[in-house]
Specification:
Strand order of the largest sheet of chain B: 10-11-9-8-12-13-14
Strand content of chain B: 15-25%
Radius of gyration of chain B: 21 Å
Oligomer: heterodimer
Number of strands of chain A: 9
Strand order of the largest sheet of chain A: 4-3-1-2-5-8
Helix content of chain B: 25-40%
Order of helices and strands of chain A: EEEEEEEEE
Largest sheet of chain A: 6 strands, mixed
Shape of chain A: globular
Shape of chain B: globular
Mean pLDDT of chain B: 95
Order of helices and strands of chain B: EEEHEHEHEHHEEHEHHHHEEHEEHEHH
Structural class of chain A: mainly beta
Helix content of chain A: under 10%
Strand content of chain A: 25-35%
């Protein structure tokens, strides 16, 4: 019997979770809260490699992406729940000169 | 928790009893290595500094090399100089002798070349070995321990497994009256508010913010050249491939290894703290430069988390490597000491795994070799330049 895929929400403020195993598009995964208790289910829109982030809810363009309870960057495109979140759709300007508006 | 260590004349305790051959300048590196090769148990601390340096940069080199010579894991020292270097062998010799450590000195230009210096070096080392044989271990407590906290080869498991376990150890050591030091300031960007809120005093909070802001300013300058945008990634290829998307995400996972204690103070690179507790040292993110800073700051052991895996170690200090990635542990068993991956899928709790790591650490402190020491992996000696 295949074990259900697990996604870990490290902090209750987080809008991304971490794939605790390799996950697949279309898979209905269990979301674990910070105490590793089952709190929700999520259907993935794409494959998520082990350790990568997946959106737990929709994240609008330029909105904060939150992990460990803190902002780790912002969305560079519109992100749907179940999407992978990584350098293709997350930007962070810390450590860089601010671009002129 | 207790462990067995060597009591040194200056009152410090060491977990190893090395005969260190320390060049005062890189020109003496090979002579130092040749001497070490002839003496069982001797280690040459080769580096790339000691000349053509001025001001704060030279002062930093002087501080680090003296502190390595004075380190409690070192039972005796042979200083090897060339004879014309900016950081003189006699200054290094004096800086080590004044903590009552057995120390000798040689100059290549005075002895007359490579082979004569090697021969005289062997004679002096045989003399120094007698001092090493006169010391035995005694039982000591965590109060006398200083642990260095380091991470390298970060992936997504670092922040949820290996670093939280290190945080458990860090809390235990500091609660017991011991010391812990963390650094790698490039990898603290985005955590300044959290860390400043843990400062024991207001001036420490200011220092923390200043140290991180200064590093961020340097990075902003370095990444600002439009011609070098392809060289402007703040985290490594391995970090990206491991699922880490930004320097802030990396940093937040990183600080889990500092546990929950207040931060007692900040330190310059390679500076030893005057008191005990948890300290932030101003070092770059380069693994070798930062571990060198920790050891110069007096850490008798370095706990090093690595998601992707690394073989690296340090010549006079055991580097205990921990991974939260089970595949990494299976793939590099001769490089990694401890598997914390049971934390990833929730089978084990932090305190259970933490207690196991405490036992592992106790054994290493009391004399059991780390994987890096067994294979003589000593890449992490590199003195940072200003």
């Amino acid at each position: 019997m295949k074990t259900q895929g697990l996604i870990y929400q490290i902090n209750l403020k987080d809008n991304v979770g971490v794939a605790l195993t390799k996950l697949f598009a279309g898979e209905r995964c269990i979301v674990l809260d910070p105490e590793k208790q089952e709190v929700a289910a999520l259907v993935l829109t794409e494959n998520i490699p082990f350790g990568f982030k997946v959106a737990l809810c929709e994240i609008d363009v330029k909105k904060a992406i939150v992990k460990y309870g803190e902002v780790i960057g912002s969305a560079s495109t519109y992100i749907k729940p179940g999407d992978i979140v990584h350098i293709n759709n997350l930007t962070c300007d810390r450590g860089y000169l601010k671009k002129e508006q | 928790m207790e462990f067995n260590a060597y009591r040194r004349p200056d009152g410090g305790v060491g977990v190893r009893n090395h005969l260190a051959i320390i060049p005062s300048v890189f020109c003496a590196n090979n002579v130092a290595k040749k001497i070490a090769a002839q003496i069982p148990g001797a280690i040459a601390l080769t580096h790339s500094v000691g000349c053509s340096q001025v001001g704060a940069d030279l002062e930093q080199t002087a501080r680090v090399l003296k502190n390595l010579g004075r380190h409690p894991n070192v039972g005796a020292v042979l200083v090897v100089g060339l004879g014309c270097e900016r950081f003189t062998a006699s200054e290094l010799f004096a800086g080590i002798a004044n903590c009552n450590k057995p120390v000798e000195m040689l100059l290549i230009q005075k002895e007359g070349g490579i082979l004569k210096t090697v021969q005289r070096g062997i004679e002096l080392c045989l003399k120094l070995t007698k001092h090493l044989n006169n010391v035995t271990r005694e039982i000591v407590t965590l109060k006398e321990l200083s642990v260095g906290l380091e991470c390298g080869g970060t992936d997504a498991t670092s922040g949820i497994a290996a670093n939280p376990v290190l945080g458990f150890i860090c809390d235990r050591v500091v609660e017991s009256g011991g010391t812990a030091i963390f650094n790698e300031v490039t990898e603290l960007i985005g955590t300044e508010t959290i860390l400043a809120s843990r400062a024991a005093k207001e001036n420490v909070a200011c220092e923390i913010r200043q140290i991180i802001a200064a590093t961020e300013a340097k990075l902003q300058l370095a990444t600002g050249d439009p011609q070098l945008q392809h060289r402007s990634a703040l985290i490594s290829t391995g970090n990206f491939e491991g699922g880490v998307s930004s320097v802030v995400e990396k940093a937040l996972g990183n600080i889990a290894k500092t546990g929950k204690s207040n931060i007692a103070g900040t330190l310059s690179y390679g500076e030893k703290p005057l008191g005990r507790g948890l300290f932030l040292m101003d070092s770059p993110g380069h693994d070798a430069e930062s571990v060198t800073g920790l050891v110069a700051g007096g850490c008798q052991i370095v706990l090093f988390t690595t998601g992707r895996g690394t073989p690296t170690g340090f010549p006079i200090c055991p580097v205990l490597k921990i991974t939260g990635n089970h595949e990494t542990f299976e793939a590099m068993p001769d490089a990694i000491d401890f598997d914390a991956s049971s934390l990833v899928n929730g089978i084990a709790g932090i305190s259970g795994v933490g207690e196991q790591l405490m036992i592992n650490m106790q054994e290493i402190l009391s004399g059991k070799l780390t994987k890096a020491e067994i294979l003589e992996d000593y890449e992490l000696l590199a003195v940072s330049r200003l």
